[in-house]
Amino acid sequence: MECKRIIMNYTVPPAAEDLEDLTSFLWDSLPDELVSRCDDLMIAVEELADDTTLDDLDVEDPFELLALYKDGKEISPGVERKVASEDDVLVLYRRPILDMWCEMQEDLQNLIRQVVIEEIGRHFDFSEEDIEEMTGRHYQGLL
């Protein structure tokens, strides 16, 4: 297995591959109640959301969308799965995440963890209180 090294001191903005590596590294630190629903979830990093996605979500500024859980959960009309399938993808939008990182001057690892928890939590209908509690938990020295 190839070992990837995560370097947190960036002299240039992290590339899409860096964010994918960081998200994979953080996966074990996510709350169990989220991870247990996401066995087959794929992670993708794109620069910005496309116009169709922005229109579908009624978002005017592409920098407002940090991540999007794209799913294939509808089995048939009105019948939905409650766990991720191989058709599900969590898309992280690189440029908005990097802008927020610069604005907040927060650790990139913590920011990505929070974005991932919030997007997966909202997708699976967790309450805002539950999501806030999950993002505040201390996992493996990350917070």
Describe the structure.
The longest helix is centred in the C-terminal third of the chain and has 16 residues, at 108-123. Helix content is 41%, strand content 13%. The protein has a single domain (16-136), classed as Zincin-like (2-Layer Sandwich). It is globular and about 40 Å long. The chain is an alpha+beta fold and 143 residues long. The protein has helices spanning 16-26, 32-35, 51-57, 94-104, 108-123, 128-136; strands spanning 42-46, 67-70, 74-76, 79-80, 89-93. The chain is built from 6 helices and 5 strands. A hairpin with a 2-residue loop joins β3 (74-76) and β4.
List the keywords:
single chain, 143 residues, alpha+beta, Zincin-like, 3-stranded mixed β-sheet, two-stranded antiparallel ribbon, 6 helices, globular
